[in-house]
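Annual report, structural modelling task.

Input specification for the glycine complex:
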Amino acid sequence: MDILLIGSGGREHAICHGLKKSKLAGKIYCAPGNPGMAKIAECVNIPSDNESIAAFAAEKNVGLVVIGPEAPLCQGVADAVRAKGIPVFGPSKAAAQLEGSKDFSKAFMMKYNIPTAAYASFTDQESAENYVRSEYAAGRGVVVKADGLAAGKGVIVASCLEEALEGVRECFSGAFGNAGYRVVIEELLEGEEASILALTDGKSIIPLVSSQDHKRQLDGDKGPNTGGMGAYSPAPVVTPELLAEVQKSVLDNFLRGIQTEKLDYRGIIYAGIMLTKNGPKVLEFNVRFGDPETQAVLTRFDGDLADTLLKTANCELDKAELVWSSDPAVCIVLASGGYPVSVDKGHEIRGIEAAEADGAIVYHAGTVLKDGKLLNHGGRVLGVTARGRNIEEAVKNAYEAASRISWQGMQYRSDIAKRAFNR
Ligand code: AMP
Ligand code: GLY
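The model returned the following structure:
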């Protein structure tokens, strides 16, 4: 079976790597893919509109389309491909609103009793500002969120009233485009965060192994938020008891919700969860695999990925066999100088082969090939991922591999997964 994979990040490289190992997979097309994916698949440049992608899938007679990022899902690529009778791993446009609109997502959570922060939603700036002031007057902190997709930005975790008001103004000033003209203001939650990813075909819902990412740029969780500086799996904070609670209060209610609302959801649901002292609460839903969590999670998957994704696409998830290695995995993100504020790009990357010599995998995210040279081209450039018999060994393996890679300005955190050591 030939497969079309949409996307070009580290997450998609990890998915591609998993598909490549599958007995079921024939040719893999990646649109647009990246230089790492080009080594194991055929990268194709097709226009990103729904019809062009669906037409390509039909013309190449692929047996499965896998959609990586949220943007094509929110744009309705899954619907267009399904209309041609081709199985798709990825939710419909209507279902993708669970990520594409914070307001839609919060209303869904409220309706189906999924624990989440209290919130209010506004389309005019003055009411939003008044609400923020009243929350602070009542002694509560807030988080300001632009309603729509804002490429990982658009969430302001305010540390004081002024910052919250500034966040509201930023949204309504057009800083996040149309995404910001509706604003969700949420109760500020405290606790440790964990990511629970689950496969669903609308009939059943099955969690993957747990993971945790590191969103801040610097060691000790300091510095600005980023797309993710590293991840590890499993996350010891997700105990069997906690997972059972999340299954019941989040995943089961989620499944009931998409069934009742008749949302065509065949893909992955990512619940970002805050472990508060009043129990786990959902911060957000993503309708796609996490990045860089996927690099760590799929590195532990020993089942047949193409078969699993196809069964999900065909509503036969109950027949899929999910096989996981008990070995933990760690992904260290190597980022460009200047990230996340700016990106110092165009420098030659050296040492990837050496890094992979002892079994680590280097997933590409922000690289480009120019005149035969591999250059850094994005904020997050590579995800160096390794397994080990325990988390300490996985960390050691990943850092040893990472130390063999270099380019001018390269930066990475030195404490990925360390918070898992003491548990
Ligand atoms: P989101 O894109 O909604 O997950 O928000 C991005 C990040 O902002 C999360 O990973 C949290 O670290 C933080 N965040 C979001 N919502 C809240 C909240 N209600 N309370 C505290 N932190 C939050
Ligand atoms: N790692 C966070 C995300 O994928 O949204």
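The chain has a mean pLDDT of 95.
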